[in-house]
Amino acid sequence: MSPRRHYEDVRVEGHLIDSQIVSRIMDDIVELDGEFETLEFDVGRTNQDASHALIRVIGRDADHLDKLMTAVQVHGAIPVDPSDARYEPAPADGVFPEGFYSTTNMDTYVRIGGEWIHADGPEMDLGIRIDLDPATAASVPIAQVRAGDLFVVGHRGMRVIPVERPREKQAFEFMNSSVSSEKPKQQIVIEVARLLRRVKSEGKTAIAVVGPAVVHTGAAGHLARLYEMGYLGVLFGGNAVATHDVEWALFGTSLGVRLEEGTIMPGGHEHHLRAINRIRAAGSFEEAVATGVLTKGLMYTLVKMGCPYVLAGSIRDDGPMPGVITDVLDAQAAMRVYCRDAGACLMFSTMLHSIATGNMLPASVTTVCVDINPAVVTKLADRGSFQTVGVVTDVGLFLEMLANELAKPVEQH
User: Fold this and answer.
1) For labeling, which of 105, 218, 324, 344 is most exposed (least CB within 10 Å)?
2) How far is 342 from 346, CA to CA, in rounded Å?
3) Own/partner pairs, 89-94, CB within 8 angstroms, 24+ separation
4) What is the pLDDT of residues 192-241, one digit of tens each?
């Protein structure tokens, strides 16, 4: 007599084949040593029509089935007979209840009182706090948990909307197949420019995540042009990018190297600290601009354009510059505000800030990561199949080409 099997039937719909949703569901079930049966599969007649599948998920026991259901849920699978979500109070400040539901970065719905409620703020690795009167749900980081708050536990009553391959012709697709330095940069630049034009036309904001290499390579001026033209609206970075930008504006060097000549200036190693001191004496970047202490550069442009910026500090910072947020949780909170409403995100030569931002972005936000280090690009590209573009190239050349492309008259496109 064969042992009793536990199963649950799930339904999934959408563009299941070209977005590889069904194959991912099946792969995850097999990877977790489970079984499946395809009970129904209605394929859309055209690439505009949705497909529908009914799949039986089979586990060895109840615990095994629960793991299988958690895995397939992120691909949009919904139990045929859904139940309301379960929830429990947080036992203490900063502590989720045991078995809490850990979020993805995709749009998520919670079933409360028979109704599907959208969980605000899609972001990976959070919990979902719910209120019952009226019924609301929100994604919350662990540091913001307060004792007694109600959080979803388990996978019951949860619905995730996976990111599907766009219906229109996707010019980014050839870039997403692999991370390589041999892809045609001009075509990539054209597509990124097209993305920024679309985001701007839709009234959304594009974020740039910027490392000091942008200044070291002499590309800060080209990045500033993107803010001046209105294609970028927010900057994320650290103390270093602001420091070396101001160092260049005041002394013509970055890390003591003359940017125009590429030669080391005697005594130039002091310039970054003198730059920090000059801005600290002014009180802020805004005061430095208003009083004429700072008259050019990327930070000058941000202040003059009224573009917000978030500078997150680190243990190695000198100074830091005024406005640098030294508490990492405060920095996360400041970045999260812009991540949740972003139209696109461009990341330039900063591994830690890029990874941090990538973890906070909803899956629907198209992200472009440009770095000379393939490992950085690979790590960021792995967070999404369709919405992330990785470009291995010199960030200075890329930014110059992008700024020049966007400066062209619209009729040329």
Assistant:
1) 218
2) 11
3) 89/147, 89/148, 89/149, 89/150, 89/151, 90/145, 90/146, 90/147, 90/148, 90/149, 90/150, 90/151, 91/147, 92/147, 93/145, 93/146, 93/147, 94/142, 94/143, 94/145
4) 999 999 999 999 999 999 999 999 999 999 999 999 999 999 999 999 99
DSSP state of 265: P
CB 368 within 8 A of CB 345: yes
Kindly report, residue by residue over 265-310, the tens digit of the pLDDT.
Answer: 888 889 999 999 999 999 999 999 999 999 999 999 999 999 999 9
Q: Cα(58)–Cα(313) distance, rounded to whole angstroms?
A: 48
What length does the chain have? 413
The structure's pTM equals 0.85
Region of 172 on the Ramachandran plot (φ > 0 left; ψ -120 to 50 alpha; else beta): alpha
Domains of the chain with bracketed CATH? 1-81 (3.30.70.2690), 82-166 (2.40.420.10), 173-412 (3.40.50.10690)
